[in-house]
Specification:
Shape: elongated
Oligomer: single chain
Low-confidence stretches: 265-304
Strand content: 5-15%
Largest sheet: 5 strands, antiparallel
Mean pLDDT: 81
Number of strands: 5
Strand order of the largest sheet: 4-3-2-1-5
Order of helices and strands: HHHHHHHHHEEEEE
C-alpha cells in the first residue's frame, strides 16, 4: 500500500466518522436517538468553567477600559501587541495637562502669582501622570496578563478537550444505536449474529475511549479552583497597585495644596507691577470652610451669635460637629459628624478657626463645621 492509498483510506474513514456523528447529533436533536448524559459532577465543572470564562472576560475588558479610557489608544496598543512591537511612548492626559500648565506658567512669568501657581500645578500633574503610567504597567503585568493567559491558554485547552469528549460521546451513542439495530435484525435472521458481535466490540471500544476522555476533561476542569485561587492573588496585587497609586496622588495634591497655601497674601501682578489687592492663601481649611458655608446648616445662626462672645472671653463652650472633617496637618483636629467637643479661642487665632478638644486630643477646627451649644 502506497502513501496515496493510505491517505485516501484515512480520508474515507474520517468522512465516515464525521457522517456518523452528524447523523447521531441530528437524531438526538429530533428526539429520535438516545443520548449518553454526563455525570452531574462533570456537568457542574463544565458550568463552573463557562461561568469563570464569561466573567473573567468581562472583568478583563472593563479593567482595560478603566486603565485606558481612550478606545483608540487601546486599539493601537492591541495592534502593537499582536505585531510583537513596542508601542510608541506618548504623554498621557495628566502629563499633557501638566506640560501645558508649565508652558503657560513660563509664558506668563514664573515671578507672577498665576504663572508660579501654574508651574507648581503642572509639575504635580506630571507626577500624577507618571504614577498613572506605573499603575497601568503594574496592573497589566500582575492582573491583566494572568487573566488573559487563562482565556487564551487554559480555557482553550478545556474547550479542545471538551470538544473531543463530545465527539467520543457521539461515537459511543452511534455505536450503541448500531448495536441496537443489529440485535433487532438478529432476532429475525441468524446471519446477523456476526454483526451483533462486531457492534458489541465497537461499543466496548467507544465506551472505553469516552470514559478516558471524560476523565481527562474532568481533571482539567477541576483545575478551575486553582485558577480562582491564582486570580485571587492577582486581584490582591491589583488592589495594592491602586492603593499605591491613589496614596501617591493624595500626597502629591497635599504637597501642592501646601505650596499654594504658602503663597504670601500679596503677589506681583502679571505685568510685574506691585498689586495692592491681597490674595487669600489657597488652603484646604479655607476652601472647606467656604464650601461648607453653602451647605444647609441649622447651626450657622448659633455659630454667628455665639462667636463674638466666645472670641472675647477666655472660657470654653461645647459644640456639636455638623460634618465630617479630615485634618490637613498635625495642628488640626479631625471631626466626626454629630460628636460633641469642647471649643475655645486663643489670642491671634484666625477668625475662621477655634481650638477644639476631645479627651486628650487637641487641634484647630473650622467654625463652619460646628454648632455652638447653650
Amino acid at each position: 500500500m502506497n502513501i496515496m492509498d493510505f491517505n485516501v483510506k484515512k480520508l474515507a474513514a474520517d468522512a465516515g466518522t464525521f457522517l456518523s456523528r452528524a447523523v447521531q447529533f441530528t437524531e438526538e436533536k429530533l428526539g429520535q436517538a438516545e443520548k449518553t448524559e454526563l455525570d452531574a459532577h462533570l456537568e457542574n465543572l463544565l458550568s463552573k468553567a463557562e461561568c469563570t470564562k464569561l466573567w473573567t472576560e468581562k472583568i478583563m475588558k472593563q479593567t482595560e477600559v478603566l486603565l485606558q479610557p481612550n478606545p483608540n489608544a487601546r486599539i493601537e496598543e492591541f495592534v502593537y501587541e499582536k505585531l510583537d512591537r513596542k508601542a510608541p511612548s506618548r504623554m498621557n492626559n495628566p502629563e499633557l495637562l501638566g506640560q501645558y500648565m508649565i508652558d503657560a506658567g513660563n509664558e506668563f512669568g514664573p515671578g507672577t502669582a498665576y504663572g508660579n501657581a501654574l508651574i507648581k500645578c503642572g509639575e504635580t500633574q506630571k507626577r500624577i501622570g507618571a504614577a498613572d503610567r506605573e499603575l497601568i504597567q503594574t496592573s497589566a503585568i500582575n492582573f491583566l496578563t494572568p487573566l488573559r493567559n487563562f482565556i487564551e491558554g487554559d480555557y482553550k485547552t478545556i474547550t479542545k478537550e471538551r470538544k473531543l469528549l463530545q465527539n467520543k460521546r457521539l461515537d459511543l451513542d452511534a455505536a450503541k444505536t448500531r448495536l441496537k439495530k443489529a440485535k433487532v435484525a438478529e432476532a429475525r435472521a441468524a446471519i446477523w449474529a456476526e454483526e451483533v458481535t462486531k457492534s458489541e466490540q465497537e461499543v466496548r471500544i467507544t465506551q472505553s475511549e469516552f470514559d478516558r476522555q471524560a476523565e481527562i476533561t474532568r481533571l482539567l476542569l477541576e483545575g478551575i479552583s486553582s485558577t480562582h485561587a491564582h486570580h485571587l492573588r492577582c486581584l490582591n496585587d491589583f488592589v495594592e497597585a491602586q492603593m499605591t497609586y491613589y496614596a501617591q496622588c493624595y500626597q502629591y495634591m497635599l504637597d501642592l495644596q501646601k505650596q499654594l497655601g504658602s503663597f504670601p497674601s500679596t503677589f506681583l501682578s502679571n505685568n510685574n507691577q506691585s498689586s495692592t489687592t491681597p490674595v487669600q492663601s489657597i488652603s484646604t481649611p479655607s476652601v472647606l470652610a467656604s464650601a461648607s458655608a453653602s451647605l444647609p446648616s441649622v447651626g450657622n445662626s448659633v455659630v454667628t451669635s455665639g462667636l463674638s462672645e466666645l472670641k472675647s472671653s477666655s472660657g470654653s463652650r461645647k459644640a456639636r460637629v455638623l460634618y465630617d472633617y479630615d485634618a490637613a496637618n498635625s495642628s488640626e483636629l479631625s471631626l466626626l459628624a454629630d460628636e460633641v467637643i469642647t471649643v475655645y479661642s486663643i489670642p491671634g487665632m484666625d477668625s475662621d478657626w477655634l481650638m477644639g478638644e476631645r479627651g486628650n486630643q487637641k487641634g484647630k477646627v473650622p467654625i463652619t463645621y460646628l454648632e455652638l451649644l447653650n
